[in-house]
Each structure stands twice: as structure tokens, then as C-alpha cells.
Task: inverse folding
């Protein structure tokens, strides 16, 4: 029987041309494979979905809100770090084009007035990012509306201290919406139960295994907490109570992004902050935003992430070309109060499965799209 995972080494570096042949994974894909291998591999390895699938309102609303969150951080850099430095102003403009697109960014920039207050400018600038994000209301969802998102973003701005942290900067980037493409190499072994020398049992490593793959994604923010690099992750949710916050204490997403930030900057990054925005806003505006420091360490967080990364990649490698044999985690057939769209595929016989798979739509997913 397979026995416990032992980590021997973990290397995370920026992907080079020679690494481009490796399979690519991001946190969404890895997490989905763990939610249900059949669903995760079909959706994110083969990029397929059922025709006529309804809108994923939570994901769409979250993506639209992130446009405003990015605008807040860009405005912070513009008015604080680039205020009296023409070179940094040029960098900020270039990064504005990258993040929002050239024409859209100039429309946003035109909302900033020299005669207005800081608060008025940042609200106008950030709401323009929301209004031009492409998000629109759905009559079936009264919670995730443009109006409710706007109110939440104003609460977000009022809770955001523009002077507390410094935005990461390099000659080419500022720490806002940082896309990364890293190559992860894990050397590990299984353990075998061996007879001891004397009494009891000892665990001894056998057969070193190397798992190598690309790990991609996009960090919401890279900032300095005093002199230490910190990732900042923005989240939206219907509930942002203590139970909601507690999920980020161990989240592999946070750990993976810390590793990616280290590779991207060449600086150690073990600090992380999660900021949650409730949609719609709470009765008390101050309860609409929750923030939590969720710092990392090598033991246990990074060791556990390596184990999870290897486990998830190995599942994908095993079943990617044999989807019909992939495990079906039936506890996830009903997620977010709706049935999984792939249930018809899972209940079909072998011949029908092939036909259903062939008739699915291609919907390419990549966190690096547009970069």
C-alpha cells in the first residue's frame, strides 16, 4: 500500500522557454480536481462545459469587484509613490494599460479631478472600473447587483488605509494584479514500513520521485508590511463571519501565492492578508469588510502545499486521458445549491459518455488570459 508522503526538496522558479512543455495548473484547477476529479479534469484540463450552462453569478460578481479592488491599489500607487516622480508616473500609466486596457483606463483616469477630495476621486475611479467591467445584473439574482457591488466597494474604500502599506514596485511592474507563471519541482518519496534495528518500527524513504509542472495564477496585490513582502488577496462572499475567515488560515491558495511571490520578486514572502467584502453590505457598513493576517511558515504550510500539489497533479496525470475511469466524488454533485452540470455525463453508460463529451462546448480557462 502507498504510505506517507515525504518531502525532500521543493523548488519554485519563474518559468523559462524550456519549461513550456510542462502541464499547467492554477489553484482553481487543482482545487476543482480535489472537489471531484471527473468535474475538475473535464472542466479545467479539457476546458469543456455543458452547452447552455447558466451564469456563474458568484464568480462573475467577484471578478467585477476585483476590477475595483485593483483600481484602489493602482490609485494608491499613483497618489502616494508616484506623486512626485515622473518615471514612476510613466510606470503607473503603463501598468494601468496592462491591468484595465488602454481605452478603458483613460476613461477611468478622466474621473480624477484635482479639485476633488481623495475619497471622491478614489470612489469615482474605482466605480468606473466596475461599471466598465462588462458585468450586468441578472433578474434571477437580487443580491449580486451592480448597485450592491457599488455600495460594497465604497465600504471597501472607507476601510482601506492608503498610507499603511507600500505597493511593491520594480522597473517593470507594480504589485497590482500580478500574473505569474512558475515551474514547480518537487522531489519526494513514499515511505515503507521496515523492520527496526532493535525494537519498534522505523520509516525509511525509498525510490525518490520527481513531480514537475507549471503553477500559474494572478495575485491581487503585492505590498510591503513595513520591510517585509506581503501578498494581499481580496475576496467577496455572502457571509464573511469568523467561519469564513477561518478557511484562509490553512488555504493552499495563500501558500501557493506566497511561493509564487518569492519566485517573482526574489524576496522571501511569508506574510499574507485576506480582505473580504460582503455582498450585499451588512446592516452596519463596518461589518461589510473583514481583514485577517494569515501568515505562512515552511512547517507545516509549505510542506502541506507540496503534498497537496503532488497529489492533485498525480490525479490529473492518471485520469486526464481516461476520464471515464476518473473517481466521482458524489458529495459534490450538489454544489452551491445547484446540481453539478456534469451529472448527465456521470450517469450515462460508456457509449453515451463519449457522445456527451464530444458535444460539450470548449470554454478555455487560464488565469494568464490577456497577459
Result:
Amino acid at each position: 500500500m502507498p504510505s506517507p508522503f515525504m518531502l525532500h526538496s521543493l523548488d519554485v522558479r519563474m518559468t523559462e522557454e524550456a519549461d513550456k512543455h510542462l502541464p499547467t495548473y492554477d489553484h482553481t484547477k487543482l482545487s476543482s480536481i480535489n472537489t471531484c476529479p471527473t468535474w475538475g479534469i473535464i472542466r479545467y484540463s479539457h476546458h469543456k462545459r455543458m452547452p447552455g450552462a447558466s451564469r456563474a453569478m458568484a464568480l462573475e460578481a467577484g471578478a467585477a469587484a476585483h476590477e475595483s479592488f485593483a483600481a484602489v491599489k493602482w490609485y494608491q500607487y499613483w497618489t502616494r509613490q508616484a506623486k512626485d516622480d515622473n518615471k514612476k508616473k510613466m510606470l503607473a500609466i503603463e501598468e494601468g494599460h496592462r491591468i484595465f486596457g488602454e481605452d478603458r483606463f483613460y476613461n477611468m483616469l478622466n474621473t480624477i479631478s484635482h479639485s476633488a477630495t481623495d475619497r471622491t476621486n478614489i470612489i469615482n475611479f474605482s466605480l468606473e472600473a466596475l461599471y466598465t467591467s462588462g458585468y450586468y445584473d441578472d433578474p434571477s439574482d437580487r443580491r449580486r447587483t451592480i448597485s450592491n457591488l457599488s455600495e460594497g466597494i465604497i465600504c471597501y474604500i472607507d476601510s482601506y488605509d492608503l498610507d499603511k502599506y507600500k505597493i511593491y514596485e520594480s522597473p517593470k511592474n507594480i504589485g497590482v494584479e500580478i500574473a505569474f507563471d512558475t515551474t514547480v519541482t518537487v522531489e519526494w518519496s513514499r515511505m515503507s514500513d521496515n523492520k527496526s534495528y532493535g525494537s519498534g518500527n522505523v520509516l525509511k524513504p525509498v525510490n525518490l520521485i520527481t513531480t514537475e509542472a507549471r503553477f500559474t495564477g494572478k495575485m491581487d496585490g503585492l505590498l510591503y508590511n513595513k520591510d517585509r513582502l506581503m501578498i494581499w488577496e481580496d475576496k467577496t462572499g455572502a457571509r464573511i463571519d469568523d467561519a469564513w475567515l477561518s478557511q484562509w488560515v490553512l488555504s493552499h491558495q495563500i501558500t501557493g501565492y506566497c511561493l509564487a511571490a518569492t519566485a517573482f520578486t526574489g524576496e522571501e514572502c511569508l506574510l499574507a492578508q485576506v480582505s473580504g467584502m460582503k455582498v450585499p453590505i451588512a446592516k452596519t457598513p463596518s461589518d461589510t469588510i473583514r481583514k485577517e493576517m494569515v501568515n505562512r511558515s515552511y512547517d507545516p504550510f509549505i510542506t502541506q502545499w507540496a503534498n497537496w500539489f503532488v497529489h492533485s497533479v498525480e490525479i490529473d496525470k492518471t485520469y486526464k486521458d481516461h476520464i471515464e475511469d476518473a473517481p466521482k466524488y458524489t458529495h459534490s454533485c450538489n454544489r452551491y445549491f445547484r446540481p453539478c452540470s456534469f451529472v448527465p455525463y456521470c450517469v450515462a453508460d460508456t457509449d453515451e459518455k463519449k457522445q456527451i463529451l464530444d458535444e460539450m462546448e470548449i470554454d478555455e480557462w487560464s488565469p494568464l488570459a490577456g497577459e
Summary: Confidence is low (pLDDT under 50) at residues 193-199. Residues 259 and 367 are 17 Å apart (CA to CA). The longest helix spans residues 57-81.
